[in-house]
Design goal:
By secondary structure, this protein is an alpha/beta fold. The chain has helices at about 35, 45-65, 85-100, 110-120, 165-175, 185-195, 215-230, 235-260, 280-285, 295-300, 305-315, and strands at about 1-5, 10-20, 25-30, 75-80, 105-110, 135-140, 145-150, 155-160, 265-270, 290-295. The longest helix has 29 residues, at about 235-260. The structure holds 5'-O-[(R)-(carboxyoxy)(hydroxy)phosphoryl]adenosine and zinc ion (ZN).
Length: about 325
């Protein structure tokens, strides 16, 4: 089954052609990072305008590099939430137009679930293979930080979530405080590699829950920056970046491992933009007694191939679809 897959929930305009959920025939991503960098974060109106400009060329390139035409597609899958309303609208309306014009079934996909399925794309197994279940999914992106127990395709139980900032959002805000640029995750990680020490920062354990909180950590960094003139000193900045990264990773790793053991998970699946963080990947892999899967970096950050994989494995005729499909910016899993 060939699926034309479309993703525009945030600041990447992405279209891919995915065959049978795991074979990527093309995967085109047009990133707006350079445009948003000058504002230090994503400007929603700029993002949706940019999606409007990019969606047709990205779609044409995706079909062309797959060597296929629209009529070869068996299904169209599009992210309909969660995300920025104006950005989601561009992808969903484009997908509807193409689906109606060509008479191809349209399926809506949950963006967070698509992140999870990046692991089926990267580590393919048969759709009937249930050996991965139950697995504990750590979904860590710019907008979400969640622990979900996945008991089968499309079946989730929320185990824990952030009570304030998402982990990626915390990285982005910390990078701004340290004057390191945008997006925060990669620049904090690079700065941390140059560290000669590590700034001591607090961790919010929220004992007795699998929930997260990163806003106190951000405030602690703000106080340290104000007190110690950190941003004028490259060494102190690197040490602060290392301390911040370690504090976030510490909590993510410990909560994930505890939740996985307590719920009898047979493996851990990490996904979302923050899953690109090498310290997080390294510590989870070293400290987990069960298998840890994390997609290659290009499948951690937003892309459309994961949308196609998700639709193949988890999409059912009851998934929202057809001309009635509408965006749901606050959609949960
Ligand atoms: O999944 P994603 O591409 O978009 C959303 O769905 O939000 O995630 C983007 C987030 C940003 O906050 C970015 O700072 C973070 O992922 N990120 C990282 C790294 N690469 C991207 N965070 C930590 N370490 C990284 N290497
Ligand atoms: Zn994402």
């Amino acid at each position: 089954m060939k699926i034309l897959s479309i993703e525009t929930s945030c600041d990447e305009t992405a279209v891919a052609v995915v065959e049978d959920g795991t074979r990527m025939l093309s995967n085109v991503v047009s990133s707006q990072i350079d445009i948003h960098r000058r504002y230090g974060g994503i400007v929603p109106e700029v993002a949706s305008r940019q999606h409007m400009l990019s969606i047709v060329p990205v779609y044409e390139e995706a079909l062309q590099s797959a060597g296929l035409v629209l009529q070869d597609m068996d299904r169209i899958a599009v992210t309909y939430g969660p995300g920025l309303a104006g950005s989601l609208l561009v992808g969903v309306n484009f997908a509807k137009a193409v689906a109606i014009a060509a008479g191809i079934p349209l399926f809506g996909v949950n963006h967070m679930e698509a992140h999870v399925y990046a692991n089926w794309l990267a580590f393919p197994i048969d759709a009937t293979d249930t050996s991965r279940f139950p697995c504990l999914c750590l979904i860590v992106s710019g907008g979400h930080t969640e622990l979900q127990l996945m008991t089968g395709h499309g079946q989730y139980q929320l185990v824990g979530h952030t009570r304030d900032d998402a982990a990626g959002e915390a990285f982005d805000k910390a990078a701004r405080l340290l004057n390191l640029g945008y997006p925060g995750g990669p620049v904090i990680e690079q700065a941390a590699r140059r560290a000669t020490g590590s700034l001591a920062l607090p961790r919010a354990w929220l004992k007795g829950t699998y929930d997260f909180s990163f806003s106190g950590l951000k405030t602690a960094l703000w106080h340290a920056v104000n007190k110690q003139q950190i941003v004028d000193d490259p060494e102190l900045t690197a040490n602060a970046a290392a301390g911040f990264q370690e504090a976030v990773v510490d909590v993510l790793v410990q909560k994930t491992l505890t939740a996985a053991m307590d719920h009898g998970a047979v493996c851990i699946l990490v996904s979302g933009g923050v899953a690109a963080n090498s310290r997080l990947r390294e510590r989870l892999t070293q400290e987990s007694p069960i298998t840890v899967l994390a997609p290659p970096l290009s499948f951690c950050t937003d892309n459309a191939a994961m949308v196609g994989a998700c639709s193949y494995f988890s999409g059912t005729p009851s998934s929202p679809g057809g001309p009635e499909l509408d965006v749901l910016p606050g959609l949960s899993l």
